[in-house]
Task: inverse folding
């Protein structure tokens, strides 16, 4: 069980992220979560959107360097310690989280090398995992 | 229609036109005889009519009578761009102004432009040279040729226009700019040949693709390029995406304009020089002494029958090498390697000579990159710093900072192996490097 993440290569210059976001807005694509990382020269921006296929088609049309990958999506309980619990579950199973970021509401996206074993570790800890279809329901009304 | 030429070894050259076979395919001996007769006459003409040259030759103690062999050209003074600039506008003209039928000027990036004037005979030579290179690319009277150069003072527009008409081809004088209109005209008028700078042709290609124009089924068969150097990788990309065959020619406003040499389809990296109109030399740029045949050096040109403004031994500052071996296309005129760098393009970075063409070669061999690049040189704390901006192709993006940084280091390493200077490599998103419509601007030297 995983969801689709879109990564876009952008230059670290004013306005470069804006152009992608405006294109999404124009096409009515809802951004459910994102994280932007930067080396000072170029950046990689990662998105969770409601319609990944439409977003990828749009990016390809614009000639952008973009690709999809699968990440896990965990829905956390809305109480103190919920994030720690998810991290501990992965750590105890020896799973290295490459990067992780929160979506709108109490969902986090986790990038790991081995999705299946991370999924098992989180499920064992009773952490709620969400797939693409469910994400739409969970995050209805939470667009960034 | 819309089918690129096959590989050179599969072309039936006997089926392709040659504009002036009695000159273009003659023996080397006869070419040299033509050159010598014209050189003797041209030096006498120049000495008698242009005070600037008379003063220069007098100062060197050389008279027209000293020119008895082709090698004697070395006794003559060199001409640099500055001579034409200092005598602005008409100081080098050899005929009364009423014999001049057309004038052009080169873009003066610094100071005054270079002004050139043509007599009717000069125009005749010029259009003949263009007719030759157009036929090297296969243009005939049946072709519809769309001009995407600007007309105006620049020599490219009118020069090509007259040469195409000389063959009987139909000119479509669209002019520069308005890319969508160009594409519409290709479709409406059944254009077979496009005249453009390679970077503008690429732009037309990309705009057409975005509009959903099907280049494969269009009537367009070829591109005649000029106005800026055409990197092989860019040419190959245009040929593949527009389904056309592209050639380019070489020339300078100071000695005529486009048409000094042109690319045939047998050797795609070389151009046949119109040797009956231009005497070529290749010299060491530092000493001015000739290099051995086939060696790289600065091209020096003496137009042999230029009447409006005679020019002796013009220093082009372009680096090339020349071969006189016969060509598979049937022509015997010497071939110069396409100019990839200029003596004055040379960047000196921490004491090392660096040519942008070297960067271009390295970039061209890396599959993950587009052919577009930009070099920025600045100075940080007294040390030269060279940054090379390169565009990654969309499919080469890896979604990992580690991998992207490792790739940038790998590109820097490949550049260092060739340049002997370690550059900073900056990865830029696809389309992030500006496509210029005129001269491709590859270098930004901020030290000046
Ligand atoms: Zn040839």
Result:
């Amino acid at each position: 069980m995983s969801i689709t993440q879109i990564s876009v290569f952008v230059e670290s210059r004013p306005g470069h992220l804006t152009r992608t976001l405006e294109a999404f807005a124009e096409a009515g694509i809802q951004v459910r979560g994102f994280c932007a990382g930067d080396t000072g020269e170029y950046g990689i921006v990662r998105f969770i959107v409601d319609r990944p296929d439409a977003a990828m088609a749009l990016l390809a049309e614009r000639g952008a360097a973009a690709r999809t990958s699968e990440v896990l999506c965990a829905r956390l309980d809305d109480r103190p310690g919920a994030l720690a619990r998810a991290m501990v579950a992965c750590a105890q199973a020896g799973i290295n989280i490459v990067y992780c970021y929160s979506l709108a509401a109490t969902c986090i996206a986790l990038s790991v090398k081995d999705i299946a074993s991370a999924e098992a570790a989180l499920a064992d800890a009773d952490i709620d995992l969400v797939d693409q279809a469910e994400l739409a329901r969970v995050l209805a009304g939470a667009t960034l | 229609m819309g089918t690129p030429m096959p590989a050179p070894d599969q072309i039936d050259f006997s089926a392709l036109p040659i504009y002036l076979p009695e000159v273009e395919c003659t023996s080397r001996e006869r070419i040299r005889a033509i050159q010598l007769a014209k050189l003797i006459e041209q030096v006498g003409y120049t000495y008698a009519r242009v005070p600037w040259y008379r003063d220069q030759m007098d100062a060197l103690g050389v008279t027209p009578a000293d020119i008895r062999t082709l090698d004697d050209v070395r006794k003559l003074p060199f001409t640099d761009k500055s001579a034409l600039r200092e005598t602005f506008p008409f100081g080098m003209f050899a005929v009364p102004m009423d014999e001049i039928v057309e004038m052009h000027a080169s873009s003066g990036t610094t100071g005054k432009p270079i002004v050139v004037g043509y007599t009717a005979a000069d125009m005749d030579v010029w259009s003949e040279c263009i007719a030759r290179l157009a036929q090297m690319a296969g243009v005939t009277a049946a072709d519809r040729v769309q001009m995407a150069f600007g007309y105006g003072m620049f020599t490219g527009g009118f020069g090509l226009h007259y040469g195409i008409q000389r063959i009987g081809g139909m000119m479509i004088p669209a002019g520069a700019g308005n890319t969508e209109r160009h594409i519409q005209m290709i479709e409406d008028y059944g254009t077979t040949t496009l005249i453009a700078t390679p970077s503008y042709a690429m732009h037309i290609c990309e705009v057409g693709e975005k509009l959903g124009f099907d280049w494969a089924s269009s009537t367009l068969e070829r591109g005649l390029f000029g106005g800026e150097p055409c990197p092989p990788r860019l040419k190959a990309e245009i040929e593949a995406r527009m389904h056309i065959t592209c050639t380019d020619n070489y020339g300078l406003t100071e000695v005529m304009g486009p048409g000094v040499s042109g690319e045939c389809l047998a050797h795609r990296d070389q151009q046949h020089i119109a040797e009956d109109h231009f005497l070529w030399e290749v010299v060491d740029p530092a000493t001015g002494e000739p290099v051995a045949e086939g060696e790289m050096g600065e091209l020096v040109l003496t137009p042999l029958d230029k009447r409006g403004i005679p020019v002796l031994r013009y220093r082009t500052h372009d680096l090339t090498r020349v071969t006189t071996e016969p060509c598979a296309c049937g022509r015997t005129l010497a071939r110069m390697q396409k100019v990839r760098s200029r003596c004055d393009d040379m960047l000196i970075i921490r004491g090392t000579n660096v040519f942008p063409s070297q960067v271009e070669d390295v970039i061209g061999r890396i599959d993950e990159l587009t052919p577009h690049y930009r070099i920025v040189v600045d100075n940080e704390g007294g040390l030269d710093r060279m940054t090379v901006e390169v565009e990654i192709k969309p499919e080469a993006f890896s979604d990992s900072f580690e991998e992207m940084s490792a790739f940038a280091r790998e590109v820097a390493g490949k550049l260092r192996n060739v340049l002997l200077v370690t550059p900073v490599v900056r990865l830029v998103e696809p389309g992030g490097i500006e496509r210029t419509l005129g001269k491709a601007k590859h270098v930004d030297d901020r030290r000046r």
Observations:
- The first strand of chain B starts at residue 100 and ends at 105.
- Residues 28-49 of chain B form the longest helix (22 residues).
